[in-house]
Every structure is written in C-alpha cells, then in structure tokens.
Amino acid sequence: MELYMCGFNAHHQLLDQDRHHNDDVAGFERVYRAPGIDVRCALWSSTVIDIDGTLVHRGFRPSGLGPVVIEGPWPRNIRTIFGDTSGVLGALSKNGSVYLFTDDMYGSKDPGFKKHHFSEDSFINRQNLSIEHLAIADNGEFCISTNMASHQRTSSGFSSPLSAETPRVQLSIPTAKLEIHTFASFEEFLSSEPPTSTYSLFSPLVSLLASATCFTALTVTQEVLTFGSALHPQTLGRSPTPSSPAEKPCLVPFLGGIPIRKIAVGGWIGAAVSEDSDLYIWGGQAGEAKKVNALPRPSDGAEVALVDIDGGVDVVDVGVGSGHILALTRDGKVWVTGEGEYGQLGTGTKAFEEDWLQVRGEWEGKGRVVEAREDDPSLRASPTANSHDLFKNVHRDREIIRVTTNFDENIPDEFCDFNITILGTGAGEPATARAAGRTSVAPLGFGVTSLITTQ
Amino acid sequence: MPPDDSLNAVLYRALNALNTLTAQTTDDPLHSCPSSALLILTTYPAALLKLAHSKIHSYPYSEVPTCWRRLYTDASVREAIRVIRGDVDGGKNVERGCLNGINASMNGTEDQDRAGGQKRGSGGGGWGDEKEKEKDWVQEAVRLLDMAVIIAGAPRREEMVEEILGALQNYVEKQELDPGLPRKKRRRGEEDGTFPMTEGKNVPEIRKPIPTVSNMSMASFEKHLKTGSPLVIRDALTHWPALHERPWKSPEYLLKRTFGGRRLIPVEIGRSYTDEGWGQKIVTFREFMDGCLLHGLPDEPDGQAAPSSSIGYLAQHDLFTQIPSLRNDISIPDYCYTDPPPPSPGTPLASKPPTPKLDEPMLNAWFGPAGTVSPLHTDSYHNVLCQVVGKKYVRLYAPTESEKVYPKGVEGGGIDMSNTSEVDVEDVDPVRFPLFEKAEYVECILKAGECLYIPVGWWHYVRSLTVSFSVSFWWN
C-alpha cells in the first residue's frame, strides 16, 4: 500500500526533514509504501500513521521533530487516537481503556501511550461505564459515548431494520444504556468532574467525530446525529429548535430515510456518503468571503446539499479537512474543493477551488471500484474470525489470493489481483471492505490530505 | 525604491518588541498558546493567522481564550511587516541591502528558510492571489493590520498597529504612490465635494414630534433627565470640526482619513439584522463608499434608494478607536457626563441584572446610504445620537409601551432577543400585532448638527433618508 499526502507541512508532519524542508506540499507526494498503511490521526501539527502494525508519529512533539514510533497497545486494538493543536493527547482502545500520550516514556526516547486509571470517584467509575467512542472538538469540548460496563457482550452482528449489511459491533443485550456525555475539556474528563451534559442514545454508534464546534455521529442504524455549539448552526446540518436544541444529539432531518455508510467532518463542514453512493455535505463558515459552491446556501433554506460531481457519478468515499473536501468516485477519480492555501487540494497550486476539481496523481488508473460486503459468506475464513482481523491479515500476506478467488463469481477476472482494504480509520467504522480503485481517503486534517492506495 | 528611514525605524522597533520584549513579558497570554504554534511564529506567521482565525470563531467572542487573540494579532503584525519590507526594498531580492542589514540581524532563521527567495504563505491566498497582493502590498499590509484590530481586538498591540499604519501612510504619501482619488467615473457629488444628498419619496410626515430645544446647558439637561423623556437638542455640536473645517460630508476627506480608503471596516449587508440573508462583510472603506454611498438618485424611477442588494451599513462600530484621527473631529457632548437615572421600575430592563457602569462613554459610528434600517429595539444605556451628515427618521416608544411592541423572546440558540421588537415599524402586520397601532410614540427627522437624547429602555426605530453619518454616545 502507498500513502500519498499533500498540504501543510510546517511541522514536518508530511515529509521527512532531510528530504524536504517544511514548505507546504502542493501536490500529492508518496510518503510511505508498506504492506499495510492506515492514517489514524491527522492533527494541526502532527500525524499518526499505522505502518504495518507500528504506530509512527510524524510532526511536532515537545521533545523534537522527526518521525518516531509510538510505544503502547497494538494499533489493531486502538479504536481512536485523538489530540488537539498542541499535538496527540491520547488513545481509546477497543475495550474502552483510555491511554494518555506521553513523550519520553519509561525514560526511553520514544513517546508512548500509557494507560490512564480513573480514580474511584471519577464519573466513569461511579457510573460503571464503558467508553465506546470519543472525540475532541477544536473548541476543546470533549465527548464520549458510553455503555454500561456490567452487561455481557456479544460479538455477533445484528441486523438493523434499515439495511441488510450492518457492521459487527459490541452490544450489550438486552438492556443497553447508551449515552453521550460532553465535558468542557479533556482535562475535566480525566478529573473527577461530572459531564456538562448527558443524553441518551437510541442506538450504538459506529463512529463519533468532532469538528470545530460540534460533534457528528453515525449510528449502527445508519443515521446521522449532530450536536454541539449553537454558535454555528449550519455545521449541524439542521436548524436547532427548542425541542431539538443544538446541544442535544438529534437526527439530521434531511438525511432521514437515507442509510449512511460513512461520515467525515472538519472545520465547519460535514459530509456523509450514503449506501447508494451519494455524497451529502453541509456547513461552511458564515461570512467567509470565499465559499464552496457545493455547500448549501442559507438563502435557499437548505440545510444539507446533495453533491453532483461529474454528472452525478457514484461517490464511494469522502474526507473533510479544516476547509476542504475530497471525494472519491466509483471510477477511481479524486475530486477536491475548498481551501488550498497550503496546497492541500493537491492541485499543485494554492488557489481556493470554489467548484469541484479533479486531481490527477500517480495512484490512479488502476481499475474500478468493486464492493465486497462483510457479511458476504464468501469472505468468512472461519466462523470465529474477527472480521477486522481477517481483512487486516488479508493484505499482509498471500492469503489475498485465496480470498479474492472466493468471490470470483462477483468480480470480473481483471480485478482479481486487487487487495482488500478497510476504508476509513478502521476504528469502529462500518467494516465494509472495498477494493476501491486502489484508493481510499484517510482522515483529512488541518490543511492536510491523505490518500491510501492498495497497490 | 529607496528606503524610508522613519518607516524602517518603526518596523525595527516593532520587531524588537515582538521578539525580545514579548519573550521577557511573562504575563503575556501569548505564552499560553501551544508550543507547536509558537514554534513557527517567526517563520510562518501566515499559517498561524489561519489557525488563530479558526480558534477565534470557535467560541462566542467574549469567551475566546486570549492566547488565540494574541496569536492572531502578533501573526498579523509579523506578516504585515514581512509584506511591507518585501516591497520597501524592491521585491523578493534576498540581499535586501537597502535596509542596511536590519533584516540580517532581525530575521535570523527567516532568511534561511527563504531558499531562493521564494515567498510563502502570504496571508492565505493562492499563488495567483500572491501576485495580486504584491502589486498592492500597501493594501495587503493595511488589511492585515486592520484585521488584527477587527477580528482579534489587537490586544497589547493597539499602539504598535497604529504606529505602523501611520508610518506607512506617511511613507506612501511621501513616495507619491497615492495619486489621489483615481478619476474613474465622475460620480455625483464627488466633484461637488459632498455625498449625494437627495432624498427618496418615502419621507415620513412628522405628526408626533419629539420636543426640541436649542443651546441646552448641562444644568438644564440634568433637570430634563428626571423626566425620563427623549429630547432633540440643536446647536450642541457647533464646535465639531466634523461639521465644519474637516467635513465628514466630503467623500474626499473621509478617504483621506482612511488611508486613501484602504482601511477595513465591518459592513452589514441586507436591509435589517432581523431579515434573513442578512450578513456582515469586512471591506475597505473605498469599496464601501463606491458600492453603497456614491449612487445618484435621480436615475431611480421611483426615487427610492439604491436596491437593497447594495445596501451596506457601517453600524455600531468603534471606528474612532480604529482611526483616532476621526476621533479628533468630534467631541463627547457634556450631556454624557451627567448621572442619568436607571431604568424605571416595571419596565423590562428594570427586571434584568443591572448593566455595569461605564468608565467613559462608548462611541459608535453609523454610516450608510439612504434606506438603512435599525429595527425597533432598546439599548441598556442612555444615548445621545448625534447627526453629522444627512438625515435620519427616528421613532421612539416609551418603555411603558413594551407590551404593545411585541418584544422577541429567547431564540433557538439561547440568545435573548427580548430587546428587539418583532414588528416592522413601517410595514406593520395588523393581524399578528393588533396592539401595535395603539402604542404611543414620538418621532423626528434628525438633521445634520442636531442630537437626539434617547433615555435608557426607550424603543427606537431608525431609517436613514439620505446618505447618513451619525455618532452615538452611550453612557450610564
């Protein structure tokens, strides 16, 4: 696999110190080539990348610059890595443990994730909660989704009423107490402070993301919830009302009835890709002089816009950075729009792109997107296998051949040498496997764009 | 272009303060910024503008952590200095000999980063944009400095910004870079030296006039305060230079005071702030004047003001802190040094927490074309509204009429809008607001040279009848 990146590089979070200075990178450059690559965290001054099972930190650390390995739990056990402008703050493991990022762990030079132990009187322990997701917004607000820790867990999938394909999730049965809690800051969360607000969730989450002033969540029922500050209501994709105030997680009405496969947010923009491969976007900072034309206009009364790229082709993946959007179409093309002042659009210039523009690159031209669902029986290597593990293993060794030939019937011969990769962060996102034109969109950061290819 | 000593000297002092003094000032909130940000403050300030701008907009303005406002300010000033020096010495030349080695000693790592003299990150534009900005580096420098004031309030750097702008203005005028007002189209009034003052047909007839007095002394005014009623006062502004030797009714004079119209101002677009589609833009004074104020009226068939799409209003802006030279053209009326009564019991404002006492009166500028509307609302201060240019129609309702003017409630975002009326005063919906026509009011057409005293809690609706420039003084 290969990782291509472009954009803001002042902290060397993209390119090596020796090869390039810290100038911005205006065209996609290949940063890594390895059997397995996943961008786990894209922050203002640093990036964390899973290279073949090792977490590599690029960018600013108090102890210096230069890429370095992060010690700690295996990347495959980590659900989310999070941070803010100052850098990486911590990680959440899949079994609900919170790890703090420490630089100079155990007296050695490499930084690491050290497990945090909540005090007995902390909110988490008092309520006996298990943390399933977390996210931190640019304004410092910290949010977790929780479940009661005492119930039994099951690892079988369940089918939702809305769609046949549903990712495997940890679910306590029969009575789940699913909640969202927000804290004024990460520090308050770590201390014994109670949350500033708590809301019930009607269904478990697949992902929880944060942007400048709000949070966006995707449920297992493939619905989108938004909640956060009322300061910029357009970033919620809905108009707050007294019964659906900004702070309360509420469904985005425009997306009602549309099963959503993936969400991506950044800055003041939110995006969702539906099962039907339609791209929906909302938000945009009020009053800015330059606008992305594809975003809904408040004067039209619209809260969310259906995106039409290139005559309405299917969109299979999306990434949203602090002010730019990247869409990947089924025919393997990469389209960008928005801010480009650090070269994050990969166009080779630093111009703002009001309209969608196709970006060419080394990664392209290798084939069309083919989808493979997780519950496709031909993919199961064994009944007890964790699907995530299956896919992660698949691209690491020769088993790829075996798996692909399993669904020969569904895929034309010419695609049989495709690798299978997980799209998204791999951290609790819908585990839909996709042989995606050999390209997928990794989380976009502040002025940074990442594309992963499976070649 | 030969260097100019005084501009160089100002920039030198500024950089010294930005570098050395800042490091020594331990209580500067700038130091609370993340180290990752401070690390690139000298080398890549343009990137920090973007970051700090986003952070500032992530909080309600009163809650923005000061470190981000400080970062935006210092990054802006550094970037402005870079832009100025980039061109003062004649361009991208790495040698920069003209500045006598000042660059070499002050820049340190900056030059090393500029391998090949390549410019980078000039305040957020594309490389195409960069060429435009280099052509008008003066405007770009002014834009950066004004944005620091408007967006962040330029904490701890107010004087520095003023000094740099002043030195830059002197430099530009001396270099004759400013050929005066470009003689594009002859607009109505520009050759006459005043804004076009024609009124539209929609001039209201005054049936319930506000009492008017002339030459009111401070003692008489103090007596009047006890009545809690509004008053039009004539001849109180006779000594204002803005009305005589430094006339604000002259576009040429205002352009001169705003650095050839380059200074940035926040302008409200759209008919009134209660309408949908209302927004705010930050534009140059020149753009504002060209776009909104220098229209001719006789072209319009029905005599109305220019179409609402070009109605922009410089409203409730502290122009006088931003441009101190304009402050010298006016003076605070004596009336604002009185001790006015608090809101009367039983009125809406009386049931709210009391407003803290102001140390000195708050000044705001209100400048716009005919047709700007301030919808019916109350303020939490007493107000003397002074008319400098043009005419405004003002209607007032007493606090006791509050029920009949249908104050708004708390909006969806938790914002208390109860100081704003639901009613559009000159287009009342009698079905929704049946009591409104029974509300008692007084009204006036305020003319240049007159002031209007509006007691605290009085509902007021204002529409400009011509190009209008007013100054309000709030006190309590």
Automatic annotation (TrEMBL), chain A:
Protein's organism: Lepraria neglecta
Origin superkingdom: Eukaryota
Listed SUPFAM superfamilies: RCC1/BLIP-II
Full protein name: RCC1/BLIP-II protein
Matching Pfam families: RCC1_2
Keywords, in A-Z order: Repeat
RCC repeat extents: 222-276
Keyword Transmembrane appears in the UniProt entry: no
UniProtKB/TrEMBL annotation, chain B:
Xref: Pfam families: Cupin_8
SMART domains cross-referenced by the UniProt entry: JmjC (SM00558)
Domain of life: Eukaryota
InterPro entries: Cupin_8 (IPR041667), JmjC_dom (IPR003347)
JmjC domain mapped to chain residues: 312-476
Disordered: region residues: 103-133, 178-208
Biased composition, class Gly residues, residue ranges: 118-127
Full protein name: JmjC domain-containing protein
Lineage: Eukaryota, Fungi, Dikarya, Ascomycota, Pezizomycotina
